[in-house]
């Protein structure tokens, strides 16, 4: 014979598993990473005392202005991110909660991830050099470019590397600097044919760029909406799709002639 629970008793019985679920969620690690604005580096200058771009086999220009590549910093791949961290990050503009697998390749330990990021950086540097020399109509047999950027992995500095090489070898093509003396920041992968690709985390990278003095930010066109979502005051967005169109936009910005695209 079954007995009937009173309403208060039924509420208690139902509440027990719900409370247990909340407790479990609060203490259990979740499959997320917490990201925030990271360091930036001027590819036309030095990083940790070493020139980022070194050119031999051709005369390199003295440049003014800056081209700053941007990064995000994420929690370590093996760090535990809990419910409180996720809730806190959702309400902060200087943090983003990202699926762990979108930041780090799944199924890899910290050492393997570091190796993967190092390999991606090397591939990005090779592609950036090829794209820049192709754009300038130069041969990599006659011009040697060495790129060094410590403690940074992944492919997202590719566009800025290419722009730095172009500025050091050719400037704006008329004797001036590609930057026009400005501090210009940005992000984007680069293919050997000059195609610019999306990278992720651009809303945080714009914050890092403005923090470090940039007034212009080059963003892959497909990520314009994300970049606009929390754009720092005083930072102008220029959408980019190829190395050639990016150089054209910067020349137009410097000269005041021609159209400068906007998001």
From TrEMBL:
Residues annotated as domain Lon proteolytic: 154-235
Membrane-crossing ranges are none
For the biological process aspect of GO, one term held by this record is: proteolysis
Query: Which GO molecular function terms does the record list?
Result: peptidase activity
EC number(s): the record gives 3.4.21.-
> Which InterPro entries does the UniProt record give?
Lon_proteolytic, Ribosomal_Su5_D2-typ_SF, Ribsml_uS5_D2-typ_fold_subgr
| SUPFAM superfamilies attached to this UniProt entry | Ribosomal protein S5 domain 2-like
Name the keywords, alphabetized. Hydrolase, Protease
Name of this chain's protein = S16 family serine protease
